[in-house]
Amino acid sequence: MRYGYFDDKTREYVITRPDTPLPWFNYLGCEEYFGLISHTAGGYSFYKDARLRRLIRYRYNNAPMDIGGRYIYLRDKATGTYWSPTWMPVRRQLDTFTCRHGIGTTTIASTFVGISAEVLYFVPMGQNLEIWRLRVKNLRDTPANLMSFASVEFCLWDANDDATNFQRNYNVGEVEVLDNVIYHKTEYRERRNHFAYFTSSAPMKAFDTQRENFLGVFNGWDSPQAVAKGACSNSIAHGWAPVGVIQSELILAPGEEREVIFLLGYMENPNEEKFEDQAKQVINKSRALPLIKQFTQAGEVQSALENLHHYWDALFSRFQVTTPDEHANRMINIWNAYQCMVTFNMSRSASGFETGIGRGMGFRDSTQDLFGFVHMVPERARQRLLDIAATQLETGGAYHQYQPLTKRGNDAVGSNFNDDPLWLILSVCAYIKETGDRGVLDELVSYDSKPGSEQPLYEHLQRAIQYILERTGPHGLPLIGRADWNDCLNLNCFSSEPGESFQTTTGKDGKVAESVFIGGMLVLAAHEMAELADYLGNKKDVDFYNKVAADMEPIVTSHGWDGEWFRRAYDDYGNPVGSATCKEGQIFIEPQGMCVMAGIGLKDGKAEKALQSVEKRLATEHGIVVNNPGYTQYYLHLGEISSYPPGYKENGSVFCHTNPWIMISETKLGHGDKAFDYYKRICPSVREAISEVHRTEPYVYAQTIAGKEAPTKGEAKNSWLTGTAAWNFVAITQYILGIRPTFTGLSVQPVFPESWKEVTASRLFRDVKYDIHIQRVGPGNAVETFVEGRKIETPVIPLPPPGTACVKVEVKVGSPK
Ligand code: BGC
Ligand code: IFM
């Protein structure tokens, strides 16, 4: 069942009824000011940091789930009837409802009692403010006398404190109302540098800034007493809960339409003013006034909207494809690319499932996210890499997480997730393949953010490999540490503090648990390093890294091989995990994907066998589950993985992040049909048709889909902020379509379904536009490549002479060789 449809022309998902299975979110802003917005206008905004600079208050795990946001009420004076054109929070049955979630814009429209209303929300480029453009039209043949109430509840900036420290925060809230603007000033006393403003293009008839005056102590947002009465009370908040409510009059002749613009903005006094105003302790309101003047004009709003569209046009136009499959087209050209940009901006901080006050940036998460956005924002990717690398430790290990504001590693979470450093190699190589910017390797980057410890980025990569080589276990496989990619597979014995939500101690002083996954990943990373060294002309390192891979490979294929598939690990007692000899958790997806991607077992049939086992034991109609059978009880020596009931999260769900590893592996074996079949099973656009089962947004990937052992199989959770976005983009574009950046040029080597006759693509690569035309001329995957009509002998297109704007590439797939 569907709750809307894709409008690919306008790049929007159009939700046609408000009662979706869950709140369906979108994001506003793409620079420093951000917001989340649900399809019924719930959500919140923040400046740079979802925890420390939050503008709008939002309560997680609430009932209803999504309440609090950017709400406008309309009230008909003649009857006293009031409603929200966004359905929430009043939830009056509307005559029509649509929410168009677009790229950086959300437009919610409805009609009720002969009045149509539409609210467009977006953040203009270059600005720290959001626009709500309300258009109201009188469809009646009599005049309409309406009142609008636009409202926000202010967060007292630090979202964590805001949600917990009431003995303090009921006393600190301060506002000021001056010349049609509500200023939210809390915190100005001690920090003197930031404030929010809320204003409107129409004159305020009245306002409220104290929540209790607007709602009434015992009312909710669904029935504010001021709206019921038709009048705000011009309340000024002294402590308690500051809000911004702007009441305006809308008297409309039959057929008349009016537009009112609301602005919510963030403003900082510059440092010198902060200093000067210390004595006065004032916020500099005059700084906000020019912006208010500008963005309350319809023409300015329209051109800001167009600028935003151009920004996204430019990003997306770097890679556009036409395949025979509309789902693939839609995901690659629009939604998957968009989700990759959102994970770039948000990492794992703020979503419907991440509160914005939890973890900072993940080392492993952010390095992988880069695969999906590096072609769109290469300069920003470069900076991101340098920031991440600076949190690496001198040992070559890495902090698992770091704070985006301070850019320092997080001691509380620690550093011994032993796969982490290897992701930096894959990520830096992806960046250089995309850009050719080998100079990045010479950038001096500190270790553990310590001044004086700076070394070239290349050395960071070398130390990452060294870190693994220095930490191997009894079978010669890499030690797993706290965990590898699977954060919840905690095989070592770490003493847990009393009061921790799950226990990871076995009471044995364990240090020997090993990871087959990291073994495979080391082979992959060492191959990358060898290729990189070759590109740099460094023969010594080529040999060294080839040897690292060659040494680990036989260890993986002996101790890491179970007979039908790759084992997952060895626990701290030396017993295999992910083996037919185990009672539960006999097979895991991760080592099958990682080892085959690393090229292990391609020649001796192990890869083929492993993928057959994946199909037999793990694949379901909703995607491929992470392990099977799921653990039915808690095991101290396995840790958090077994804290989840079978079929959920790391214990047997379709952990979508890993599915593209199997898609890529299938292409390595030449199985285009199988790869694309797996692609479609978790593809949001395909699953749109079963939205009532899938439940999260049909336009973006979720982290997990409940697995075959779960009572709610097929139900997705934790949408938006997941490494799934980047990896699926890589699987479909670089492996199934085969359009893959390499150090020496763009390579085109598709492994797509036999039934596909033709694919075209336009790809900007190192400032040159590649017009690619792929045609199937026969079965199989062998290619013949023509550049500007001339046949070339490899699938890698040589870099054209400087100044070349466009290169035409013809690829014939299935050519008899
Ligand atoms: C996982 C969670 C887990 C957490 C613990 C996350 O990355 O997705 O399942 O609870 O890490 O560290
Ligand atoms: O690999 C991790 C990732 O870093 C965060 N989310 C969960 C994944 C699997 O545990």
Automatic annotation (TrEMBL):
<protein>
    <submittedName>
        <fullName>Glycosyl transferase</fullName>
    </submittedName>
</protein>
<dbReference type="InterPro" id="IPR011013">
    <property type="entry name" value="Gal_mutarotase_sf_dom"/>
</dbReference>
<dbReference type="InterPro" id="IPR052047">
    <property type="entry name" value="GH94_Enzymes"/>
</dbReference>
<dbReference type="Pfam" id="PF06165">
    <property type="entry name" value="GH94_b-supersand"/>
</dbReference>
<keyword id="KW-0328">Glycosyltransferase</keyword>
<dbReference type="Pfam" id="PF17167">
    <property type="entry name" value="Glyco_hydro_94"/>
</dbReference>
<keyword id="KW-0808">Transferase</keyword>
<dbReference type="InterPro" id="IPR037018">
    <property type="entry name" value="GH65_N"/>
</dbReference>
<dbReference type="GO" id="GO:0016757">
    <property type="term" value="F:glycosyltransferase activity"/>
</dbReference>
<dbReference type="GO" id="GO:0030246">
    <property type="term" value="F:carbohydrate binding"/>
</dbReference>
<dbReference type="GO" id="GO:0005975">
    <property type="term" value="P:carbohydrate metabolic process"/>
</dbReference>
<dbReference type="InterPro" id="IPR008928">
    <property type="entry name" value="6-hairpin_glycosidase_sf"/>
</dbReference>
<dbReference type="InterPro" id="IPR010383">
    <property type="entry name" value="Glyco_hydrolase_94_b-supersand"/>
</dbReference>
<dbReference type="InterPro" id="IPR033432">
    <property type="entry name" value="GH94_catalytic"/>
</dbReference>
<feature type="domain" description="Glycosyl hydrolase 94 supersandwich">
    <location>
        <begin position="11"/>
        <end position="285"/>
    </location>
</feature>
<dbReference type="InterPro" id="IPR012341">
    <property type="entry name" value="6hp_glycosidase-like_sf"/>
</dbReference>
<feature type="domain" description="Glycosyl hydrolase 94 catalytic">
    <location>
        <begin position="311"/>
        <end position="738"/>
    </location>
</feature>
